[in-house]
TrEMBL record:
Its main location: membrane. It holds the Pfam family MatE. The keyword GTP-binding does not apply. The lineage of its organism: Eukaryota, Viridiplantae, Streptophyta, Embryophyta, Tracheophyta. The chain crosses the membrane at residues 44-65, 77-98, 118-142, 148-170, 182-201, 207-231, 269-286, 298-319, 331-354, 375-392, 404-423, 435-455. Keywords: Membrane, Transmembrane, Transmembrane helix. It is found in: Membrane. It comes from Papaver somniferum (Opium poppy). It comes from the Eukaryota. This is Protein DETOXIFICATION.
Amino acid sequence: MDGDTNSNHSTPLLTNKDEKSPVTFCTKLWEENKMVWQIAGPSILTSIFQYSMAFVTQTLIGHIGTLELAAAGLQNLVVSGISFGIMLGMGSAVETLCGQAYGAGKLRMLGIYLQRSWLILLGTSVLLTLIPIFATPLLLLFGQNRDIAELAGTYSIWMIPEMYMFALNFPMQRFLQAQSKVGVMAWISLGVLVIHLPLSWFCITRWGLVGAAVSLNFSWVLVVILQFAYIASPSCKDTWSGFSWLAFSDLLGFLKLSLASAVMLCLEYWIYMVLIVFAGLLKNAEIKVDAASICMNIEGWIFMVPLGFIAAVSVRVSNELGAGNAAAAKFSVWVTVSIALVTQTAFVLLILFTRNSFPKLFTDDKAVMKEVSTLALYLCVSIFLGSIQPVLSGMAVGAGWQGAVAYVNIASYYLIGLPIGIFMGFKLDWGLEGLWIGILVGIGLQTVILLIMAWRTDWDNEIELSKERISDAAGPDEEDK
């Protein structure tokens, strides 16, 4: 998990003047492949370890009772899901600016960007606190069972500290990713997960849902403390020079990029929550929701791999644009897409070959197993598209295209894909399959548009935009450094 390299300041792999002889191309392809995996590998492990914390807690809650499990699941999917999506999205603004500043050699600006993001995300957290406070009436408004809604609302209030940890954690992760210091995040996440396992069991067996909240909140606090300790250590002495009043300058410009990032990623993240909600309105809703939840669970675990590629391509593109290497940024995008295609195709084949047997791992209900087997084909298409679309989204973050991609997502998912899914699911009576087809149409359309954007992009112009972005965000005393 040794990802802490500073290879971005070495001789660029590919410049606009490179000769394209076969040997040279193969060498550059191999070198780029190694650089991508140096970032993607530890990032994938970090995502898996952190995702496992909530998974472990929810699994243990299932041994308390079905009511508690349903309440925890509702809190995790809906209440926490909303704040998680917003924080994750807004935090990606740091990814753009830190990555480009690092490539340009303006190392001190990384710490300033980190602090600006903290200010904005903590302020956003204060507003988002209203969601868990009023979670019960909101869930009742969505037609949820009263007993489940009331318990989920109570659990949501206990989980408020987690939201503030998201606000601190996501910017720190992007700050470290921009410098390719991803290995340390994987080790920290693994260490905290090892502590979380017995702690969660101890707390839940004694205090139930309250214990679940205590253990999960404590683990996220520990992640934040350990990451900040590393950032404040000599390991980041070039990019972190302590707290600065410069963090309060240009907050409006930073907020605009953060909001665009949040809209872009939330529209992608929430579309599957919308799918679950509409699945609950179908005939035999219980079977449909159970089958959809199993498929979403599988896709959630597999998506840990594309998350690593998102981090890798975002870092590579932003670093190379900041360093003025247009051809290297473009080359990295296509190499990462190729790697993602190979890995995701392997998952697709595994699911296809086991589609009649893997549902037994999740349920004993034959009707649910049959529904999951039927949905396996749609799940495979989602996973395959998940090899291209996330990488292109990571490219968009690295280049700072969040605003443009947000409009693409609105049109693809909500103006075209979702209406098609609703029409097929309800009007044509295709059920869950029809809803999922609509979502796939949206993902496919978004993928095609992003491919066209990547293909037609003037990467030399992106370098100039990167310089302007860094110059605008820097204080006057920083521009000369």
